[in-house]
Amino acid sequence: MAVVLLLAIAAGSYLIVRVAAVGLELTGIDRERANFQALSAFTNSGFTTRESEEMVRHPVRRRLISVLMILGHAGMVTTIGTFAASLLEGSVGRTALTIGIPVVAFVLVVRLLRAVGVTQRAHDALRRWLAARYDFLAPSTEEMLRVNEGFGVRKIRIHADSPLAGRFLRELDLKPRGVQILAIERGDRFIPTPTGEDRLEVGDLLVVYGTEAGVARVFQPDATSPVKVVQS
Q1: What is the pLDDT of residues 140-188, one digit of tens each?
Q2: φ, ψ at 192 (rounded to 5°)
């Protein structure tokens, strides 16, 4: 009886982690990280500071992680109790054999289901089911732009003595430097998604995306550059 209960706990734990991982995916996290975060929370193993901040700042993720932690604690207590009860039923060797064989069989069945594509189809079906019934919030703009990974959006003003004034965007060699000009504010005019044929003019306020180093190489090539970062 204890062995059956232990297997039920293992199967239930696996299902809980998979459902939570799909839920985390729907909030904008890639599948590999969602699986890791769900397993970490359920086993109370913890995770890195930056990724933990991504979890707690997002309300849906925070709820999912909280539920996983609670269920993980309950599962651990139940597992320990079940294992202790099984020890009382016989010798240690017999108990280990009785528990080990079904656990190994469970792992092999899971691997077989993955190999034949059953788990992927189940994952896709679960994702559609959750998306249709629950409102998962989209990731924040900061997450989509990977602000925590060194990227950012800033505004830069082109002054009269700037060497960039009068130059076409295609001349700035932006792509190799990982820099993109998202828009140009020119007086009352707003130019979204400018192309290489757009020319910079004095007074332009550029909305720039990229790494700090990349932006500096383009707009502040030397210490005397008059290009000014208006807003980071």
Answers
A1: 666 666 666 678 888 899 988 888 899 999 998 898 888 999 999 998 8
A2: -80, 150
- Domains in the chain, number: 2
Q: Which of 118, 139, 160 is the last residue of a domain?
A: 139
Same domain, residue pair 175 and 79: no
Which residues fall within 8 angstroms of residue 187, CB to CB, at 6 or more apart? 203
Placement of tokens 């828009």 in the chain: 183
CATH number of the domain residue 213 falls in: 3.30.70.1450
Phi and psi at 135, nearest 5°, equal: -95, 100
pTM (2 decimals)?
0.48
- What is the token pair recorded at 10? 């293992």
Q: Rounded to 5 degrees, what are φ and ψ at 187?
A: 65, -125
Strands 228-231 and 151-157: antiparallel
Residues 6+ apart with CB under 8 A from 67: 20
Q: How far apart are CA 71 and CA 154, in angstroms?
A: 43
Count Cβ atoms below 10 Å from residue 57 Cβ, excluding itself. Answer: 12
CA dist 207 and 10 (Å) reads 52
